Amino acid sequence: MKDRIKKVMANIFGIDGNLINNNSSPDNIDNWDSLKHMSLIVALEEEFETEFSDDEIFNTMSYSLIVDALETNKL
Amino acid sequence: MKYSEIIKDNYVLGKKVKGREYKIAILSNIMVHQSKEICEYFLRKQSVNIKIFLGEYDNIVQDSAKYQDLNAVIIFWEACNFFDGFQYKADEISNVKFEALVNKIKAEIDLVLSNLNSTSLVLINKFSTLVFNRYQVSNNRFNNIVDLLNQYLESNTNAYTNLNLIDVDRVISNLSIDFSVDLRYYYLSKTLYSIDFYKGYFEHIKPIFLSATGRAKKALIFDCDNTLWKGVLGEDGFDNINMFQEVQHLAVTLAKKGVIVGLCSKNNAKDIDNVLENHPDMILKDDSIVIKRINWDDKVSNLKSIAQDLNIGLDSFVFIDDSSFEIGLIQKDLPEVSVFQVPIKEYEYGLLFRKVSNLFYNPSQTEEDVAKIGFYKKQLKRLECKNPMGNIEDYLKTLGLKINLYIDDLSQISRISQMTQKTNQFNLTTKRYTENEIKKLINNESKIVISIGVSDKYGDHGITGLAILDLEELKIDTFLLSCRIIGRNIEYKFMNIIVKLLRNSGVQKIDSQYNKTMKNQQVSDYYSKCGFSLVCESNGNIEYCLVINNYKNKELEYIRVIDER
Lengths: 75, 565
Description:
The complex is a heterodimer of chains A (75) and B (565).
Chain A: H1 2-13, H2 34-48, H3 54-59, H4 63-72
Helix pairs in contact in A: 1-2
Chain B: H1 3-16, E1 21-28, H2 35-44, E2 49-57, H3 60-66, E3 72-76, H4 86-89, H5 95-115, E4 121-125, H6 141-155, E5 163-166, H7 168-175, H8 177-180, H9 183-189, H10 195-212, E6 219-222, E7 229-230, H11 233-236, E8 242-243, H12 245-256, E9 260-266, H13 269-278, E10 289-295, H14 299-310, E11 317-321, H15 324-333, E12 338-341, H16 349-357, H17 367-370, H18 372-389, H19 392-397, E13 401-407, H20 413-422, H21 435-443, E14 447-456, E15 459-470, E16 475-481, H22 490-504, E17 509-514, H23 526-529, E18 533-538, E19 541-547, E20 559-563
Parallel strand pairs in B: 1-2, 1-3, 3-4, 4-5, 6-9, 6-11, 9-10, 11-12, 13-20
Antiparallel strand pairs in B: 7-8, 13-14, 14-15, 15-16, 17-19, 18-19
Helix pairs in contact in B: 1-2, 2-10, 3-5, 5-6, 7-10, 12-16, 20-21
């Protein structure tokens, strides 16, 4: 699952997937602004055929929080 | 294709696709940021070098002033967000407030249209109630305002020829409302439309941009057996084939609009001719068909020879056949041809054909389009006579060629604009101009717009050549000839005319250029042949210059010039 998340993030942010790690967040990925975040969530929902809750949409502003959210959704 | 893959591929395509930049702004009163990559992806796939600008949220009027110099502007103006919650508040407001709101939006429409008056293309989505009123039995205020404003938009299409109204309900219903919108995101962030919607939407409007960038298809070639009719003529016999009536009717309609319709089929020519002439149910007949290759040769060679005879590129071709074998062969050997296979489910054929018809999208039909079938038929007749004569010059002398010369002729605006948009092969700079832009050039004192009509003893080709001279920068901005009249030395006679005109205007030296495209290889040395000297060359683009006094007229006395001023 983590590889798929990284792949989607790499596509959305236009960066190399190998650069994404547990610390990845808007602080160290330049492209990660609020609009790109919406695109990321839409892409992840499509990739994992799931729906984030409103809270999750706004609060998953880092790679590790995204992993947590998707794991809670029992994927 | 998944959204994240589109973003990735779009990024790659963005670095690959080159050529003249085509700039579009997307303005909106809702969040539409996801439309950007999807629009870019769809048009870059067609090798349009696209650049998208997104307007600010809910800032349509101001942005329309900001982006008026781009090639096109697309506007998402959603009634549900005229103000927050309008779709459920509309019935509560007083009549006075309702009136005031209608007038306010009308005034804003006026401002937007007038700001964008000089923009080549303006696409506005018609206002829609479909998403929120889907269960509504009778009309409500929300409907009323949307109907009023749509009428208002329609009433402006005559005054603003650049305005295209897009019926977004067609896109939504094709996809279903639930797949088109994501209300969760609408209530969270005013992002109304889904990714799937944008894919459907840009696919829907793509023909407009393909046409505007000179990529519309020109020729439609049919196989016969199981493509124009159900059955195999050679096996089932004349009496046992059943016409695909819907497709034949639609093909006739396309032919009337100027699409070149042809047949390419493995059959005995006289058997097919017999069907065309004598079958009582046949709709698509010889008067709509420009060219036929009915023989037992392979279809790749046949399509190539059709392209050669018509003098148009294979990438302007659409080919329809029922056989996977033939389709596969053409995809492999002639990948530039768009191929479609007749669907196995017969009832799907009509819809597929309607989709294919969009590839021939032509916004402004001219007289030349309507008369085109005749032109091409005569062209082919000339080719037949041409072969036995041997010497080309001798042949041309027998044609009675005539050029009718028009200068800054306002009545030809739409044909002139169309030539700049559709001519690819004999086109030195391939600059595309809309009707508005042509009008401006004609009205500009320092620009000369010269159009020519060509005719001969077989008939009139109509307006088929264009040159735009810039006397300020002293250069030939545009020089093109329709492929219908190539090979008659018209291009050299035309240059005589241009040089004479420049001389009379007191010009001593003129610059010109050849801008290389995928299709205009054949004219790369045109200016050299006319005696221009080469100034510099880079990436296949060549700059030329001519000292007017050094120009040598090619005689060509067999082409008569008639000044229509």
